[in-house]
Amino acid sequence: MMPIKEIYPLILIADNDHEVIKQLSSYLSQHQFRILTAVTSKQALGLAFNKKPDLVIIDLQMPEIDGPAMKDLFGVNPETTYIPVLYIATGTYHKEPSKWRHIPEDDMISKPIETNELLSKIYNKLKQKNNNKTKLSKIIKA
């Protein structure tokens, strides 16, 4: 039997703002999510490759490697390529729409973070991931 702790989704939060990490960790822990945190892109990549979280929430404009570039790096490992990502964005991302236009609005969370929107997006991403796993397992069995 799987330990109860492993039933709850594991979320990696990557942001160089310690306060954002603290607030999100606290809020999501109250909703039974297991949390990993990283304050650098390199830490986030290491945790993603080693722990394979169910979802990653990352600062869109993370120093070193920005959020979209980090998601691209997940693609080099077959075990992390399908990890869903939500991007935390400040109002400044609207000032560079051409740079970020490839990111669907459903993948964005604007600061200040509205918690109901955050939870809704997390649940939708996890549901999509599980649906994709089910479809993939049916294809493999066929």
What does this molecule look like?
The protein is an alpha/beta fold and about 140 residues long. It has one domain (about 10-140): Response regulator (Rossmann fold, 3-Layer(aba) Sandwich), CATH 3.40.50.2300. It contains 5 helices and 5 strands, in the order E-H-E-H-E-H-E-H-E-H. The protein has helices spanning about 20-30, 40-50, 65-75, 95-100, 115-140; strands at about 10-15, 35-40, 55-60, 85-90, 110. The protein has a 5-stranded parallel sheet with strand order 2-1-3-4-5, sandwiched between helices. Helix 2 packs parallel to helix 3. The radius of gyration is 15 Å and the shape is globular. The two termini are about 30 Å apart.
> What name is given to the CATH topology?
Rossmann fold
| Unreliable sequence segments | 134-142
H-E order: EHEHEHEHEH
**Which term fits the overall shape?**
globular
CATH C-level label: Alpha Beta
Class computed from helices, strands and strand pairing: alpha/beta
CATH superfamily: Response regulator
| Assembly state (oligomeric) | single chain
Strand order of the largest sheet: 2-1-3-4-5
Q: Could you tell me the radius of gyration in angstroms?
A: 15 Å
Q: Count all strands and give the number.
A: 5
- How many distinct folded domains? 1
Average residue-wise pLDDT: 84
Distance between the termini: 28 Å
